[in-house]
């Protein structure tokens, strides 16, 4: 399994962490062999990008891969009066996120990301959640990314979304190198399995699977109703299903998070799995789980129980 670090937590997702803990999290990932890091302007209004760039500043540039995203342009808020962000990140709301998939918006977004990261190029640039702006994203945003690729400011290009349908459209209507599917090929739910993953496999498009713990519900051995799903409260039916899966995992000598990671990497179209973490301990746990897959008997047991 090629394991990456999802860096939303470096932007204070759900709760605040300090700079030292953010740096230690990235360092722990590096020590565990992780060389792929995914971030976005959306994550903490640029905080994730700044922290990631600083943490990697002394590392050799040819030894790691960074992906970031475009389409949510950060614009300073002149009316800021001390409030906090309302989109899940514990940061001052000094900027507004403005959807902008225009050519100018894509270029401005990338330039700002490069400044925050302290880099002159990124390895992967992705349209961020384009599903509500599909036509302009596909017809204008993607060609703008292709221009940036030609100019050498980005390497691979594509899109990241939890909407499998828009990613499938991208693969069939455009020429992406990679897609990032969020929470749609997990142990809990697999809507990407019917069309997106086979389409990517046929087209030779790489798939990065993220949100593989469904925002937290699959991240612990014994899930409860207090855990998030889709960055909000988990529905009771999904909590019950996660607990049932955890019970089968326990009977087969493994854990829910171990099975979630292994399943997420199991399709041949998936080339990397990026798991989020907000502490060195979480990074080390995920890295250990990635090299200790569940027994093969788990999967038929889950299918027999109607859970997979």
Q: Can you tell me the overall shape?
A: globular
Helical percent range?
25-40%
Strand content: 15-25%
Unreliable residue runs: none
Mean pLDDT: 96
Strand order within the widest beta sheet:
1-2-3-6-7-8-9-12
Helical element count?
Answer: 10
Rg is: 19 Å
Provide the structure class. alpha/beta
Largest sheet: 8 strands, parallel, barrel
Describe what you observe in this structure.
With 308 residues, the chain is α/β, with parallel strands linked by helices. Helix content is 37%, strand content 19%. The protein is built from 10 helices and 12 strands. The chain has helices at 19-31, 47-55, 103-117, 134-150, 164-173, 196-203, 236-251, 256-264, 280-290, 298-304, and strands at 3-6, 36-38, 65-70, 72-76, 95-99, 122-128, 154-161, 178-182, 206-210, 228-229, 232-233, 270-276. Strands 1-2-3-6-7-8-9-12 form an 8-stranded parallel β-barrel, surrounded by 5 helices. It has a two-stranded antiparallel sheet with strand order 4-5. Strands 10-11 form a two-stranded antiparallel sheet. Helix 3 (103-117) packs across helix 4 (134-150). The longest helix is centred in the middle third of the chain and has 17 residues, at 134-150. The protein starts with a strand and ends with a helix.
